[in-house]
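User: what does the whole thing look like in 3D?
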Amino acid sequence: MASAGQDDSEVEWIRRVQRGDREAYGPLVDRYQRRIFAVVYRVLRRREDVEEIAQEIFLKAYLAAGTYNFESSFGTWLMRIAVNHCYDHLRRRRSSKVTYFSEMSEVGERAVLAGSESRETSGDRLEQQLESQDLVEKLLERAPAEDRVILTLKELEDMSVKEIAEVLKLNAGTVKVRLHRARKRMLEDYRRSRRGR
Amino acid sequence: MRCGKVREGLLEGEPWPTEFARHLETCPACASYVRDWQQLQTGLRGVAADPVPEPTIGFTARLLRRLQEATADERALEVFLERAGRRFVSVALLAALLLVLAVLMPQSGPVYSLSAADGDPSRPEAVAARNYPVFSGQLLDSSFEFAPEAGGR
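Assistant: Here's the predicted 3D structure for the full assembly of 350 residues, as structure tokens:
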């Protein structure tokens, strides 16, 4: 049975892909490529790698198309593959090894602060916004993979708790707890970094 | 009102009850906490607004070409495994046949013992062979002795 929110043409494309029709995959890729690009870029923060990683994700999804059973929407299923793929990349890059500000070495702390110190004196609202953004970007980059993914999906992709739960295959309660912890850790480190300057 | 409750409520992202706002008026520590949270949210909104790279022209066509290559490789592996599997089955069948023949072969060779049918009176040739060994080749056996003639010298 097709999931709610899927139009007939999409269902037809998926069924054709499941029968091995490669050409039917084209419209599905066209439909979801921007969304996949966005999540890959926001989780991994590497502009130059986005296209290659997006190709890997679509390739993986095509080869696994037979396992898609229409329980969730195709977009959610694809997003799950994308997030798992990004997790693997983060783990490979070991970017989750050194994490938030509180866990950084002194050198790391100075590096995080250096990016925002230059705009310290202006007091201008826009400058302050840019400063916060800069700091948030750096903290996100150093965040543990789990925090980074859940914060990206919620705060940057603006997904609901229910949607995140579907993508991560968790129950909504677990998502809320993890999101709460991730926010708390990030805020504590944000405050610490501000006070440290 | 406890500061912890206000801060937890803030991080939950749920709508704030009015007593939280009243608490902030009297608690500078929580007010500062909330300000930092708002700044962090501003930073996150800024990151979210950062333009995402667009797929380049031909992204889908390149992907479909890669798929073709990937599925061709997969098919080649399938064909290889299929052929190897067929060969294995043929060799296994041949080995099984040889084994069966090896087990059955001795039974089709010389008779090593008399069968039950040899003593069957309904088969006169078997009875004759027992009573008249000359006809059954037993004379060649060196252990056979002629009985002395009655009234001989």
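In plain terms: The first helix of chain A runs from residue 8 to 18. Chain A has two domains: 8-93, 101-195.
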